[in-house]
Design goal:
Number of domains: 3
CATH class of the largest domain: Alpha Beta
Number of strands: 22
Distance between the termini: 13 Å
Largest sheet: 4 strands, antiparallel
Strand order of the largest sheet: 2-9-5-7
């Protein structure tokens, strides 16, 4: 270890490590402010995400946060367990039961400890030690107290490291915000083009409705008891909405029980959200009740033209509006889609329109890839700086 550094455990450097107050919160906006689990962000404590409750004077004295306290998310989803935020305010706020309060002794500054906790989170440490159930994960106080931490004995050296990290992270945050904005702009340009094509239309386009040129076929739902992870000649893949994101939940069913089928180029609609009204394609198999297949009359409407038409924002707004008005309705129905107006050019012009959209889509995907790589590089740089800082290399 570097000279002037000390290795200890979190339990040894913390003056306080305890749960928050367990009370029933209300949504009235009245009473005492209680920090909630959603209040943890990557940067700081967010006052906009607190709840309210009536506390006793004893609880107020015990659970009031002090300037420099560290809030630790010890009950959350596995990917968020271990997030921390420093509390910097004189405003009376009290920490809730899903947050642990960390108050360091004089040997470690609050700012240094907060960065050290972020290092543990970024390294994936908490995901490795947390206890997971179906809906959440947790880390107990005993597991936290035995975690090793290295720190300079000199408080001024701790402050120097914190200053370097704060300055670097501020710059990273600025670059990251610009990259995220550029990513959003690239997507917005593509979406704007789609909307322009399908709302302004062209000369000679024929007005009709989706119901007149397209049939919507809902899926079927075999019992889960017949699901299997093993593929064989006698079964077929059952496609669900989530399968369009990954093969993580791949399942098969007996071919004899399959009733609705789709091919790779078929246009599929997610009937449930969030997000509502996903337009999907690219998989082959039987599809379940959460999906609906859009089958166009291909003498009038091509599958590609239909695919992009269903992705433009005006029809999405229409679907959202009608879904909100039909709160008791279970999923999107074809009765909602069929009356929606669509204007059709000739099949040749449909192909020309689709070719232009595909070119812009390819350019957009290329830009997205660039910005995603940049965001990943910034995250890697942040992890590298934290690693250097807490291994005495800064």
């Amino acid at each position: 270890m570097k000279n002037g550094w000390h290795k200890s455990t979190l339990g040894e450097v913390l003056a306080v490590l305890r749960n928050g107050v367990n009370c029933k919160q209300n949504k009235s906006g009245k009473g005492d402010k209680i920090s909630r689990i959603e209040s943890i962000s990557d940067a700081s404590f967010d006052f906009g995400r607190v709840g309210y409750a009536e506390l006793s004077e004893r609880d107020k004295e015990r659970y009031r946060l002090q300037d420099g306290d560290i809030l630790f998310s010890h009950i959350n989803s596995a990917v968020h367990v271990g997030k921390t935020a420093a509390f910097n305010s004189d405003e009376p706020v009290y920490h809730g039961v899903n947050l642990l309060l960390m108050r360091p002794k004089d040997v470690v500054t609050s700012a240094y400890l907060n960065h050290a906790m972020k290092y543990l989170f970024q390294s994936g440490y908490w995901r490795g030690v947390c206890k997971q159930s179906v809906n959440q994960a947790s880390v107990n106080q005993q597991d936290i107290s035995i975690v090793q931490i290295s720190y300079p004995k000199s408080l001024s050296e701790q402050q120097r490291i914190v200053g370097i990290l704060d300055e670097a992270f501020e710059g990273i945050a600025t670059v990251k915000a610009n990259a995220e904005k550029n990513l959003q702009n690239a997507r917005a340009i593509f979406e704007s083009h789609l909307n322009s094509v399908f709302t302004k239309r062209g000369d000679g386009w024929v007005e009709t409705t989706l119901g007149d040129v397209c049939n919507f076929v809902g899926g079927s739902q075999p019992p889960k008891s017949v699901f299997t992870k093993t593929h064989s000649p006698n079964n077929i893949r059952l496609i669900q909405i989530r399968d369009y994101k990954s093969d993580k939940h791949l399942v098969y069913i007996p071919r004899s029980l399959a009733k609705r089928f789709c091919n790779i180029d078929d246009v599929m609609i997610g009937r449930y959200g969030p997000p509502l009204f996903q337009i999907l394609r690219g998989l082959e198999g039987a599809y379940n009740v959460a999906l609906m297949k859009a089958v166009p009359d291909e003498s009038k409407l091509s599958k590609d033209f239909l695919f992009y038409f269903l992705k433009h924002s005006t029809i999405l707004q229409y679907i959202i509006y009608h879904s909100e008005r039909a709160a008791g309705q279970i999923g999107l129905t074809k009765e909602t889609l069929e009356p929606y107006p669509i204007a059709l050019p000739s099949l040749a012009d449909q192909q020309t329109t689709v070719d232009t959209i595909k070119e812009l889509a390819a350019e957009t995907q290329s830009l997205e890839s660039i910005y995603q790589k940049k965001l990943a590089a910034l995250d890697a740089l942040k992890k590298s700086l934290l690693h250097q800082a807490f291994n005495g290399e800064l």
